[in-house]
Amino acid sequence: MKVCVYAICKNEAKFARRWMASMSEADEIYVLDTGSDDGTPQLLRSLGAHVTEEVITPWRFDVARNRSMQLLPEDTDICVCTDLDELFRPGWRAKLEAAWTPEAGQATCRYTWSFQEDGSEGIVFWPVKIHARRGYRWTHPVHEVLEWVGDGNPGPTVVAYGVQLDHHPDPNKSRGQYLGLLEQSVVEDPDDDRNMHYLGREYLFRGRWDDCIQTLTRHLAMPSAIWADERAASMRYIAKALLEKGEPEQARSWYLRAVAEAPHLREPYIDLATLLYQQEQWDGVLYCTSCALELKQRPQTYISDPAAWGSLPYDLRSIALYQTGRTREALDAVKQAFLLEPGNERLRENVAVLDNLLKKGA
Fold first, then answer.
1. Which domains does the chain show, CATH number per domain?
2. CA-CA distances (angstroms) from residue 218 to 10, 110, 151, 204, 222?
3. What whole-number distance in Å separates Cα of residue 358 and Cα of residue 322?
4. CA distances (Å), 263 to each of 229, 255, 269, in order?
5. What is the pTM of this model?
6. Pairing of strands 86-88, 124-125
7. Over the stretch 230-242, which tens digit does the pLDDT of each residue have?
8. pLDDT for 362
């Protein structure tokens, strides 16, 4: 099969060499440069990429990605869309070909979107960035997704197990344009619940608490907003905005609604446990962390907070156990937290303090 990578870029010379090395298992690499002035196009060409330079005005991610897709040869069997701050781990092509079938339309692979300060994985999910040559286009000005526009039905989506794509973004690169593009997305398609959720989340990130609450309330009222995970996330974000506004009781109500909406997720339980910890409601902390820790399977979606799957549930639980006089159980819990976050000095100290208390018979 002919496997081709395509990408868009602007001023990413510092990522070019490592990205080209990572993509080198492909037959060909095509890049649409949208206005670099740091030598990115020239460097990519010297490393073997086919580069077209074209400024997209007004800027939209979907237009740029569709233009870059058009650069691919017609005889491409598998199209792989990545950005220059994303890297495949070696051996990806063979694993992708092993998963692909003649009738396949798309493929998902494991994607690490963020990493923690200690190098461990943060947010992990399985997006669709790999597809057949014909019948697809990218849609939405930002947070763009693949859409089937061909005749008939698209081929099935296969899972490329073992293919790992890692995201290493430039921390100095501005994402300031995202809000305007999200607002434009909602204007263009006001019935798209995904766009509405993303816009409300973006307002939360920007500290626009009332806009966040209003937009996410609209999301929850949409007939198409039926995915429980995303609905629960909207409820959690509303609660976070209410907390910022100094309304903890209303926030707790929304956290409870999030738990009821998606009891199969740890995140609502841990958000509620954190609030109850702040309110020194220790029995509530113990109940919520117990429910969270009963959930062992981390979901393969972008709505997965790494904190809920790390040391935090055990950390909160250990404090609540200590506060309710169960020192031995508190020590066991904080040891579990420390195993998951061995670089955390506070957890190390908590282990030592509780251990000493038990040795003294406290």
1. 3-167 (3.90.550.10), 178-279 (1.25.40.10)
2. 35, 31, 34, 15, 6
3. 12
4. 9, 11, 8
5. 0.91
6. unpaired
7. 999 999 999 999 9
8. 57
